[in-house]
Write a structure and sequence with these properties.
The chain is an alpha+beta fold and 241 residues long. The chain contains 10 helices and 4 strands. Belongs to the flavin oxidoreductase frp family.
Length: 241
């Protein structure tokens, strides 16, 4: 099998890292360079990456998000932010208007670009024999994080990435049945039994941190008011009216 495809198909999340393992500056730079080379809409690169090095900053992140202690214990923690501040500077320099509060499109662009950069970083990390885990729940404290890290106007935290040397081996997590995800030429309806099948697959997988069936977890999630306060954060950052 092609080595890159092998890495992609065997990727899994690690949450336990060797606290004493130090990643070389060269390896960190390789990961950052790989992230920055990700595809980007019109080459706009509507994101920034913050390498969180100070221990006190990482401790504060864990205080806000105690379910993710690896943000402190991993060798490196990266924060990916949607960055529309840069293009605001461009608009100012060109003396043009910047009406990004009139559409959700700029936020989608920034989020997509950041996600592509994040995935490049994940695969680069895996290729170096390291492990990683994506942290989306940082958005619960997006406003506080923005203040802590002195993020400028028109930026917003999206997700983090902890990586280092894993101390606990993890199994590759099963994905939804292919017919529920991959369609050819047009969207093809499928029976709900595929989702029930996936419920059974995940129960057999037996991930300890999962306390609900897959379908129940997302039924509950979308039935309640979101706790990921992206909209409120964007209002705070003056992106939405």
């Amino acid at each position: 099998m092609n080595k890159t495809i092998e890495i992609l198909k065997n990727r899994r999340s690690y949450r336990d890292f060797d606290e004493n393992h130090v990643i070389t500056k060269e390896d960190l730079q390789e990961i950052l360079d790989a992230a920055r080379q990700a595809p980007s809409w019109m080459n706009g690169q509507f994101y920034s990456i913050i390498v969180i090095q100070e221990k006190k900053l990482r401790e504060q992140l864990v205080k806000w998000n105690p379910g993710n202690p690896h943000m402190l214990k991993s060798s490196v923690f990266l924060l990916f932010i949607g960055d529309l501040h840069r293009t605001k500077m461009v608009s100012t320099a060109h003396e043009s208007v910047y009406p990004i509060n009139e559409s959700i499109e700029p936020i989608l662009l920034a989020t997509t670009d950041a996600a592509l950069a994040l995935e490049n970083a994940v695969i680069a990390t895996e290729s170096l024999g390291l492990g990683s885990v994506v942290v989306g729940s940082i958005r619960k404290n997006g406003k506080e994080i923005s203040q802590l890290l002195e993020l400028p106007e028109y930026t917003f935290p999206l997700f983090g990435l902890s990586f280092g040397k894993p101390t606990v081996e993890m199994k590759v997590k099963p994905r939804l049945p292919e017919p529920a995800v991959v369609h050819y030429d047009r969207y093809h309806p499928y029976a709900y039994t595929l989702i029930e099948q996936y419920n059974q697959t995940m129960e057999a997988f037996g991930e300890a941190r999962e306390t609900k069936r897959w379908s129940q977890k997302f039924s509950d999630y979308f039935a309640t008011e979101p706790i990921i306060l992206t909209e409120q954060l964007l209002k705070f950052q003056h992106l939405l009216k």
